[in-house]
Design brief:
2 domains, about 270 residues, MerR-type_HTH_dom, Multidrug-efflux Transporter Regulator, Chain: A, Domain 2, HTH merR-type domain-containing protein
């Protein structure tokens, strides 16, 4: 029995290892066929090699790399293989920790996505909101054109990447004086980070706000004027500035996809 040879196809069926993987093991020097027919290029394995392949299968299932498995077979020493197990266990624990963090972020993004899906149905409907202080980072302005804005946003992106920061809110503060002169002027750019220790400035102060959700390029819309009219109709008075924030970074391809919240402080 142990003198018989098995073709690569038979070995694949017996071990449930694809033929392409068996050829890869041969290529990287993990396990080569006991015999190769140079005329037909057929590969043949012994029964003992099938047992070895099942061991390899099990070790791969446990998370051992090809290099670790090669090291195991080259040394065949309990102490050495025990060290390999400890390495794989440590690597697996780190991967589990990474996956748990990814799961947490995925759930947070999923909930935010569901929230934005509901908010899209409220576009154009004004409402009053009592807002608590929102802390974050204030980036110096003003910017007066799309070109200046793009350059500033690029610098902000570089700053956030280099400091491993994750924005959960981005936006602008705009004074009505600047808005009337140039609809593309932003007094300053604001952002709030997931990393709370970086949120040292109040980017949107607490107070009463007239709010409305919008979608698209707000500079090209009359949403600010419409909300000001609504404020007047409801016998409120606007303060001297407004805030525009974006929270949906997934459903964004062009400016027409922007889902934003316009806040005008009122008294």
């Amino acid at each position: 029995m142990f003198d018989e040879f098995f073709t690569i196809g038979e070995v694949s069926k017996s071990t449930n290892i694809p033929i392409s993987t068996l050829r890869y093991y041969d290529k990287v020097g993990l396990l080569s066929p006991a015999f190769k027919n140079d005329d037909t290029n057929y590969r043949y394995y012994t029964p003992m090699q099938i047992i070895t392949l099942k061991v390899i299968n099990h070790m791969r299932h446990l998370g051992f790399s090809i290099e670790y498995i090669k090291s195991h077979f080259e040394n065949m020493d309990y102490e050495h293989t025990l060290q390999l197990f400890e390495k794989v266990l440590l690597e697996t624990k780190l991967e589990i920790k990474k996956l748990k963090n990814t799961e947490k972020e995925l759930v947070e993004s999923w909930n935010k996505f569901k929230e934005n899906f509901q908010l899209e149905k409220k576009v154009g409907i004004p409402f009053i909101d009592e807002t608590a202080d929102i802390k974050g980072i204030i980036y110096n302005g003003p910017v007066h054109s799309l070109g200046e804005l793009s350059k500033t946003l690029k610098n902000i992106d570089n700053f956030e990447i280099s400091n491993n920061l994750t924005p959960v809110l981005r936006g602008f503060k705009v004074s009505f004086n600047n808005w009337k002169k140039n609809r593309f002027t932003k007094d300053c750019l604001i952002a709030s980070m997931k990393e709370n220790h970086t949120n040292k400035s109040i980017v949107i102060p607490k107070g009463k706000y007239a709010c409305v959700y919008g979608k698209g390029a707000f500079e090209e819309q009359n949403i600010v004027e419409n909300l000001l009219n609504w404020i007047k109709e409801n016998e409120y008075s606007p303060k001297n500035e407004f805030y525009l924030t974006f929270t949906d970074l997934i459903m964004f391809k062009s400016k027409k996809d922007f889902l934003y919240l316009l806040r005008i402080p009122i008294i």
